[in-house]
Amino acid sequence: MAKKNHYAILVTITKYPGLSDLGGPESDGMALAEWLTSEDGGDLLPANVTHIKTADFEPISDVYEARPTEIQLKKALDNLLREGEGNERRWKDKAGERLYLYFAGHGFTAGSSLTDPALFSAVAQNGDTAHIAGYRYAAKLASAGFFDAILMVKD
Q1: Nearest 5°: phi and psi at 131?
Q2: What is the per-residue pLDDT for 95?
């Protein structure tokens, strides 16, 4: 039986106009999404899996217009963690039992600890480390108690 209170947000970036492109992140994310929604895998409802990927956006050569960036992750989280409309949107007390976070693309270690991996966003370039600090998002969500468990993978 599908786990209605389990969710996943996957961010996969293959095109980096300011860095080198990658071939694998999107197909890896699609394989994970397939596993997450299979009965013998994560058994999540397909509607509970959000996959933010390079292919969702128009191909861009201007580094400043490239997507996805941290904004798309914030929008996905906002849709998951808030309820209501317009100015009446408010935080939910609890969003679900489990959240899977998956980040694939160029990465690095943010801060001074190996336990703080980050994903370069599509607008990153030499000298500009625009990124998504996945562990920091997971830690904030855990601290706020939105989920009983958060599983994060950085590939």
Answers
A1: -150, 170
A2: 95
Amino acid identity of residue 73, one-letter, is: L
Q: How many domains does the chain have?
A: 1
pTM greater than 0.85? yes
pLDDT band at residue 109, thresholds of 50, 70 and 90? confident
Q: State yes or no: cis peptide before 25, omega within 30 of 0.
A: no
Please check whether residue 89 lies inside any domain of the structure. Answer: no
Residue 117: give its domain's CATH number.
Answer: 3.40.50.1460
